[in-house]
Amino acid sequence: MKKASLLILALIFALSLSAHSLSSPGGQVSVTVNIDDAGTPTYSMRFEGKEVIRPSRLGFELGTGAPLLDGFTIHSVENRSFDETWTPVWGEEAQIRNHYNEMLVCFEQKGSARKMNVRFRAFDDGLGFRYEFPLQESLAHFTIREERTEFALTGDHTAWWIPADYDTQEYNYTCSRLSQIASLSAASVDANVSQTTFSPSAVQTALQMKTDDGLYINLHEAALIDYPCINLDWDAASLTFKSILTPEATADKAVIFTPRSTPWRTVIVGNSGADILASRITLNLNEPCALEDTSWIKPVRYIGVWWEMITGKSEWSYSYYPSIIIGEPDYSTLKPHGRHLTRCWWKVGISAGKTGSDAGKTRYLTSLLHIPISIFPASTNTPTPRASV
């Protein structure tokens, strides 16, 4: 009995040497990072004492060579805290607080000496983590066949989801249990010709869930730049979402030249749906605005009428003019066909030239800029404008 007790104590001590913990500034979120018996990096997460993410594996399959999945040891760990208040260029709030505790865990693969770091940031309302590959001879450049990030959940949660699709997000949302995704996925596909699903059990992010005890969980990503977006494939047996990256034409997912970081994977948690909406984790994990002068960015009114074209009520074009050469048509005499998408006026600081009347020039600009977000330096694939103060 005494020998067995000593063995258990030795095992607990050995595990404690490889496990590293991180808590958010207010203590609501806690994260534990470890390596399992195979040397696979894992993480787990709790919110206000409740388990949110069970131990989940991290790593990559590569196009050539041994995968970055197992055989790792924890080489070093760095911790820091950060607190700033910054002013967005535009948005719902005049100032946003960016307050987190951070842990950089440096993994090294035995035998190959390849290094893979994972940076964790614990906020009081969730977690962000990303992979970082330092410059190294043993991994100077490589191809990702698949990212193997996991989100092991605690139950068969209620979820609001749309099917995974490499081309479009134009689906109606389905509310169901996670266990029902595979059986309901086919019914989510409609007459939209752009829809092409690739797995009945896979969904897109952002994925919103609610546990039976009322906890709200959102899985998504941030700072998606020069990297494929993530999809999540549900494994019902293990209650685990596993990442599937959007592929290139070659079926590979990404080509990496070190040093390089991936986008952030995010787990936002709250006690209500409003908590998820109020979270600023996604904004805070994007890089600050790279523009020194943002004075030219002005809010404007916009009426989204994309679905008028989808239903056949309206058209992209302004007129049935057979050929448009920018700067040449006289828009004061050009007859509109009355089915143009945009029904709102714009005030933009752009010269339209000297052809036609002012009204004609404004309509011309309206025709070009009826999706106004495209003229701003922020989208789902670019950093959100930021400026630290």
Question: Can you describe what's shown?
Answer:
With 389 residues, the protein is mostly beta strands. The protein folds into two domains: 20-284, Beta-galactosidase, Chain A, domain 5; 293-389, no CATH class. 12% of the residues lie in helices and 34% in strands. It has helices at 2-18, 181-184, 273-278, 281-284, 306-310, 358-368, and strands at residues 20-23, 29-35, 41-47, 50-57, 60-62, 72-86, 96-109, 115-123, 126-133, 141-147, 150-152, 158-161, 174-177, 202-204, 207-210, 216-222, 230-235, 240-245, 254-257, 260-261, 264-270. β15 and β16 (216-222) form a beta hairpin. The longest helix has 17 residues, at 2-18. It is globular. Residues 6-16 and 343-389 have low confidence and may be disordered.
Low-confidence stretches: 6-16, 343-389
| Distance, first to last CA | 62 Å
Helix amount: 10-25%
Along the chain, the helix and strand elements come as HEEEEEEEEEEEEEHEEEEEEEEHHHH
And the CATH topology of the largest domain? Beta-galactosidase, Chain A, domain 5
Taken from the alpha-carbon principal axes, the silhouette is globular
The average pLDDT is 83
Which band does the percent of strand residues land in? 25-35%
CATH class annotation of the largest domain: Mainly Beta
CATH architecture of the largest domain: Distorted Sandwich
- Main β-sheet, in a few words? 10 strands, antiparallel
Computed Rg: 25 Å
> What is the total tally of β strands?
21
Structural class: mainly beta
In short:
With 389 residues, the chain is mostly beta strands. The protein has helices at 2-18, 181-184, 273-278, 281-284, 306-310, 358-368, and strands spanning 20-23, 29-35, 41-47, 50-57, 60-62, 72-86, 96-109, 115-123, 126-133, 141-147, 150-152, 158-161, 174-177, 202-204, 207-210, 216-222, 230-235, 240-245, 254-257, 260-261, 264-270. It contains 6 helices and 21 strands.
